[in-house]
Amino acid sequence: MGAGHGHGHGHAGARHRWRLLVAFGLVGSFFIVELVVGLISGSLALISDAGHMAADVVALGAALAATKIATRPDRSGRRSYGSYRAEIFASGLTVLIMLGVSVYVVIEALGRLGEEVEIQAGSVLVVGTIGLLINVVSIVLLRGGSEESLNVKGAYYEVVADAAGSVGVILAGILVATTGQGWWDTLVALAIGVFVAVRAVVLGREVLAVLGQHVPEGMEIDQIVRDLEAVPGVADVHDLHVWTLTSGMYVATAHLVVADEAAAQVVLENARGVMRQEHQIEHATLQVESRATKACDEASW
Question: Which domain holds residue 253?
């Protein structure tokens, strides 16, 4: 079997590509409108939301590209797992964009404190309301794939944060219109920036967990060991490693020590069945050893 052998797994990100495409079209078309109105009205809350909308456009575009790249067959012979990790890298890019936008907004908001700012509250309210409607539609679209794909989840988080930004923009417009105080716009923009940063950190931790090859969320390594040890013929389990390749695709390796009279092939088939049926791990590489095997003792790590 060559290094670039494909295993024909169903790919969660590819199944939800159409959701990303529709959301990309909606968000991308509205971004220009929001930015222009924000500059004309002088609203930092609107400009900050437009900046976050721009981050959405880039993040959704990266997510779309990643779903395409992830399904390409490897012709180089160098990527034995294919390009599935492209989705995780796209999610990481989303995190960096969200952090960048939040830092910019916070810096701008702090710089405006104490300044007299004239805000066109009517324009802010209209654009904020339209933006919220677009974000709600995008949230409904992306929510359906957010539990299956970390890539789609990253885009979903982006749109959720943007929806909160749109609510903030509407709130800023109402407060400025009713009080005549422009600093409300700055305060709301600051709150939006902090909220976006928090969401970025939450997603970033998930991305790092995948890249760090942590045990997938919801799996207990000790329970997997117990289930494998319960397979008839298995005397011991060691060197068990479980990690996420990309969203919904889990990989495991383990060494099974079998009793002398155990049929190795039967043990392997039963153990793979346990991994697949009990833990949703379809790609498990299991090595069968006898009690006398010393290969693992000779390993340096």
Answer: 221-289
